[in-house]
Write a structure and sequence with these properties.
Blueprint (H helix, E strand, L loop, with lengths): L2 H5 L8 H10 L4 E3 L1 H16 L3 E12 L4 E12 L3 E8 L3 E6 L2 E6 L4 E6 H4 L5 H6 L4 H4 E8 L4 E7 L8 E6 L6 E7 L5 E11 L17 E4 L26 H4 L1
Parallel strand pairs: 7-13
Antiparallel strand pairs: 1-8, 2-3, 2-12, 3-4, 4-5, 5-6, 6-7, 8-9, 9-10, 10-11, 11-12
């Protein structure tokens, strides 16, 4: 469960026309003076500190430079501070990443496998997603390179303060009215790019901690990379997994 899996979370969009629309959202139309950009970034971080949970649909595009091809996907995501998240990919292939603040699960139904890792070894404060999880600080981990107004949004171009081949640059897309994140784009030194756009994000919906509990479905292969005791497995099916909210209750009907 390396850092590349976590960075893979930051990816946008279904279809070529959607990809073009997503790229347009990150197109700089007016570059702002550095002091104004710094002020807006501080306001964004300050506003997000007040948020306890966030839920949204997402659309994703990942470009793999070595293969010269892109991959499109979509699904739903939930965050709850501190350190809880649930990424459910529904297209093109069902996958699920769940973290409860201590353990990280990666479920691949197509290969009947669950990989388990320690949350602290998979995440660090320097990762962009850590900001959303409430365990990282943009000001402490990134330097602001430029700030731009786009067609309806603001994006911050950030660079990590510590050298990291898996993260060369990071762009954060923010709603100028709410000062809440609505998208992100990352670049690594190998030329790979991943971009994500949140669709209709909702905050402070009172998501319960139990929504981030995960019990492996019956009969799956479990690869446990933790140093602690192995994860337990109950005789249940995927649709019975503990913690699936009402928003997940339609999954079984879709199959």
């Amino acid at each position: 469960m390396g850092r590349y899996l976590i960075l893979a979370f930051l990816g946008c969009l279904i279809g070529a026309s959607s990809e073009a629309m997503a790229a347009e959202r990150f197109r700089c139309q007016q570059e702002l003076a550095y002091p104004e950009g710094q002020r807006l970034l501080e306001e964004t971080e300050s506003q997000y500190r007040t948020v306890q949970d966030l839920s949204a649909e997402f659309v994703q595009y990942s470009y793999f430079a070595g293969l010269d091809r892109g991959e499109h996907s979509k699904g739903t995501v939930r965050f709850k501070k501190p350190g809880r998240m649930d990424w459910l990919y529904t297209d093109p292939e069902r996958q699920r990443f769940v973290a409860d603040g201590a353990t990280l699960w990666y479920y691949q139904p197509s290969v009947n496998q669950v990989t388990v890792g320690e949350f602290t070894s998979a995440f660090s404060s320097e990762l962009p997603v850590s900001f959303l999880l409430g365990i990282g600080s943009l000001a402490e981990s990134f330097s602001l390179k430029r700030t731009c107004r786009t067609d309806g949004d603001i994006f911050f171009e950030l660079a990590p303060l510590q050298t990291d081949p898996s993260l060369q640059a990071f762009q954060l897309l923010v709603d100028p009215e709410t000062k809440l994140p609505v998208g992100a784009k990352t670049f690594d030194v190998g030329g790979n790019e991943t971009q994500i756009t949140l669709v209709a994000p909702k905050v402070d919906q009172g998501v319960k901690d139990a929504a981030f509990a995960f019990v492996p479905p019956r009969g799956v292969d479990i690869i446990d990379n933790r140093t602690a005791a192995p994860v337990r497995s109950k005789p249940i099916f995927e649709e019975d997994v503990v913690g699936q909210s009402e928003s997940r209750s339609t999954e079984g009907k879709e199959r």
